[in-house]
Amino acid sequence: MSDWQDKLSTLVYSTDGGKVDNKPKGPVILGESLKGGVVKLTRQTKGRKGKGVIIIEGIVLPESEFKKMAQTIKKKCGTGGAVKDNTIEIQGDDRERVKSVLESLGYVCKLAGG
Questions:
Q1: Per-residue pLDDT tens for 44-84?
Q2: What is this structure's pTM?
Q3: In angstroms, what CA-CA distances link 68 with 1, 44, 72?
């Protein structure tokens, strides 16, 4: 086939899934960077029936590495947690322990909130 025939034979619409987009998709990046590249640790209890969690903001990594980072922090702190809304939530109130873990991983941390 010649070059112009290749352009004519590309799939534009399919009844199976609607409009077809052949653009390659890059890796999904989670997190948002904060001013100065500082990681912010916030304690939050609102809407959690008094149970405290530590919200980690400011880490920007691809999705798989972001989840591995959360796992590493949870293991080193000995607590549970989750990845929600481009942040990492760690159960408990021990921000100093989380801060020391993040600093050992090479991040600059700042305690924020109550």
A1: 888 777 788 999 988 888 888 888 989 999 999 899 998 98
A2: 0.68
A3: 46, 23, 6
